[in-house]
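hey so i finally got around to running the thing on that chain from the lab meeting. sorry it took forever, my laptop kept dying and i had to restart like 3 times. anyway pasting the input first so we r on the same page abt which one it is
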Amino acid sequence: MTEIYEILRQWESGRSLRYISKHTGLARRTVTRYVRLAQEYGLIQGGGVSQITQGMRNYVTSKVRVGRHNVSKGPMWEHCERHKEILKEWLEDGLQIKTIVSRLHRYTGVLVPYSTLVRFLEKELGYKKSTEKSTVRIADSEPGEYLEIDFGYMGKIVDRDTGRRHKVWALVFTAGYSRHMFVWLTYRQQVQDVIEGMEHAHAFFGGVFKVLLPDNMKTVVVKSDRTNPKINQAFLEYSQVRGFHIDPARVRSPKDKPKVERSVQYIRKSFFQGEDFYSLQDAQEKVEKWILTVAGLRDHGTTHKQPLKVFEEEEKGRLLPWDGEFYDVPKFMEVKVHKDQPLYRRQRLYQESRARKYR
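ok and heres what got predicted. didnt touch it at all, straight out
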């Protein structure tokens, strides 16, 4: 009641609706409605405060309360109500709000504002926004200097052709300067899979980063050590061919490669969870499209820039050249040969064994 009286008192004294809205903290539409109801009762601007009687205030209050029962919710809120079940499912799957906004837009063609969706989820589905801990930002490297890589478990895919259910791993590549990334999906974590993913990453980025910063995955680091790690022979030869250096992170030290650590979580929650794929190839095609249309064009939470744009403008031109020919991955194995056979016979058996194995 006091709020209504203040609005009417200021309007009667000649204040504009904009001024009243600003100084009372109410929306201009609300202020306008109160004034119009008072005018219906007989309020005249400049007629004196005495005309704002208790009866006038009661009239405005009753009309406002009655009107609230008849006012329909906004179209965006009603759109969320129509898709409440799918929103509940996505929320239970742990999808981020931005991902839900994007996915709802993709499926229904309606872009619901982020704030509206948050309010709907809080009121209708009991969503509570978690508070994030503050962190200290590490100084960035020079453009094209290093590339962080890491394996992350995404989930499972049912191959529609074979009917088999497979675990899917993502080999994630994140540029240290621009935060632009590439994702290679695979069923295995062998050295051949890592090198194959590296080759597709070079094709995707259009060049080779000078330093590779992996964790201590056995396919790359045979024996971890703080000062002198032992690198897998096949991967070491590959790095020499491509011209990049390997600088493994310390054991159990995720902060040595924080950018790719965050990327793994982002990919799992924003892309993989809740999606349906026909095969691994289908998932790979979709994730590459998602990188170029969604992840690469997002406002990065740390740099507040678009990773794809920063990469194209500042980083791509400073990469090492890539010849465009995919690397033929060698296959190393141990072959047992009887000790009484001559050396040339051992070599021949070794070659024949490799031919039979990979024919």
